[in-house]
Amino acid sequence: MCLGYPAITCSVFYDQLLKSEVKTIVTCDEQGAGFAADGYARVNGLGVVCITYCVGGLKVVNPIAGAFAEKSPVVVISGAPGLNERDKNPLLHHKVRDFNTQQRVFDEITVASAALEDADTAFSEIDRVLHAAVRYKRPVYLELPRDMATVPGRLDHRARDLHEASDPHGLAEALAGSRRRC
Predict the structure, then answer these.
(1) Where are the strands (E) in the chain, listed by range?
(2) How far is CA 77 from CA 3, 12, 55, 139, 164, in A?
(3) pLDDT value for 142
(4) Cβ distance 129 to 46 under 8 Å?
(5) How high does pLDDT run on average in the chain?
């Protein structure tokens, strides 16, 4: 399930979501979507919120920071201005300082982030970021420029296995150490 608020920089991605099997719930605003995704993650193990660039992204900072503090794995998918729109640093609506400002803000309140600006690496970046959400039980951030939403990724990509083996020796040491402290 994906919660969110569709707007101009994520509208192409939202159109694809609506045609997919992913259940999409549109909320009244981005902040509400962020809190709902956090609640969904706490109950179901992973939540997703889809928002627009800066005006929407900055509205989910509070719920995502809360999700970080409470170890709630929420995936933030943000639309962004298209790569071609960024030439010569134009004054685009919703932009704060520069085109990387929003990602830098989310770098402080997530365990992993990626701007999906290269079709050759997009799938592996998505795998890396989602793996971090599952492994660390914390929020992550993916930024999708609107002109990249329909660009096909690598056809030879194979998803990473997200299962990690436990180290029995390390686990035994950790348990022994916690028993000594009790």
Answers:
(1) 2-4, 24-26, 47-51, 74-80, 113-115, 140-145
(2) 10, 13, 14, 11, 25
(3) 96
(4) no
(5) 84
Q: What is the mean pLDDT of residues 79-92?
A: 72
What CA–CA distance (Å, rounded) separates 42 from 20? 24
pLDDT, average across residues 57-62: 91
Looking at residue 59, its amino acid is K
* pLDDT of res. 29: 87
Helix (H) or strand (E) run with residue 125 in it: helix 119-136
Single out the residue of 139, 172, 167 nearest to residue 49, CA to CA. 139
Phi and psi of 42, rounded to 5°? -65, -35
pLDDT in tens, 108-126: 999 999 999 999 999 999 9
**One-letter amino acid of 147:** D
Burial class (CB in 10 A: 0-12, 13-18, 19+), 38: buried
The pair phi, psi for residue 138, each rounded to 5°, is -140, 165
> Taking every pair of C-alpha atoms in the chain, what is the biggest distance, in angstroms?
62
Q: Which amino acid, one-letter code, is at 48?
A: V
Asked if residues 11 and 77 have their Cβ atoms less than 8 Å apart, the reply is no
